[in-house]
């Protein structure tokens, strides 16, 4: 048992619960609101929280990202560093020593809904939003580019139907095959 050292009164606090719903697919104006470097052995991951600025109806909603800056697996490290470079270019920062340098700098990105599933290692993961594409304020020659308009995609993905694991549908072909055999005969051919 752990004593709190005071009486906590739950009714004195806001306990309204929000139903979590993913953002729809679309183009959003975002900003990095928080970041933290996490080290585990030789692996270094940057944990990032993006806050929605526009469209207004989704303002202050969050998207979470984890970027592998250094990883034992070269392909994970390469993907992570590429994503971090895209984020830096989107906010207009070239040289970064501290992730706080990226905070509260607005940028535009295409956001996508991801579905829940199971990893190759067998770990279940929840559905989540992710940045599919960063839009840069300048082109490769350094010319300013008009930013996209934040908007929700007209076509949204339809959820996949749940697998109800009905035995009847899987058993049907075997049952039909059994019914097609002549009555009184053994399956191995002799009587």
Describe it for me?
- 17% of the residues lie in helices and 30% in strands.
- The chain is an alpha+beta fold and 191 residues long.
- A hairpin with a 2-residue loop joins β1 (26-40) and β2.
How is the secondary structure organized here?
Elements: E1 26-40, E2 43-54, E3 62-70, H1 74-91, E4 107-114, E5 117-118, E6 124-125, E7 128-135, E8 151-152, H2 167-180
Antiparallel strand pairs: 1-2, 1-4, 1-8, 2-3, 4-7, 5-6
Level-2 CATH architecture:
Beta Barrel
Query: Any low-confidence stretches, pLDDT <50, length ≥5?
Result: none
Q: What is the CATH topology classification name?
A: OB fold (Dihydrolipoamide Acetyltransferase, E2P)
Overall domain count: 1
N-to-C SSE string, H for helix and E for strand: EEEHEEEEEH
Q: Work out the helix count.
A: 2
> If you compute it from the alpha carbons, what radius of gyration comes out, rounded to the nearest whole angstrom?
26 Å
Indicate the proportion of strand residues.
Answer: 25-35%
What is the CATH first-level class name?
Mainly Beta
Q: Please, what is the average pLDDT?
A: 86
Helix content: 10-25%
Strand element count? 8
């Amino acid at each position: 048992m752990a004593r709190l050292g005071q009486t906590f009164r739950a009714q004195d606090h806001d306990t309204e619960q929000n139903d979590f719903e993913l953002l729809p697919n679309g183009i959003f104006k975002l900003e990095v609101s928080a970041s933290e470097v996490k080290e585990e052995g030789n692996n270094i991951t940057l944990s990032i929280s993006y806050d929605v600025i526009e469209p207004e109806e989704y303002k202050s909603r969050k998207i979470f990202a984890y970027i592998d800056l250094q990883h034992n697996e070269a392909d994970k490290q390469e993907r992570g560093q590429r994503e971090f470079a895209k984020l830096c270019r989107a906010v207009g920062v070239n040289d970064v020593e501290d992730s706080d340098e990226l905070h509260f700098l607005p940028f535009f990105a295409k956001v996508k809904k991801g579905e829940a599933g199971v990893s190759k290692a067998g770990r279940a993961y929840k559905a989540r939003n992710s940045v599919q594409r960063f839009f840069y304020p300048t082109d490769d020659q350094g010319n300013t580019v008009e930013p996209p308009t934040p908007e929700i995609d007209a076509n949204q993905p339809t959820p996949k139907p749940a697998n109800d694991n009905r035995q009847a549908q899987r058993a049907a072909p075997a049952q039909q095959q059994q019914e097609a055999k002549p009555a009184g005969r053994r399956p191995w051919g002799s009587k």
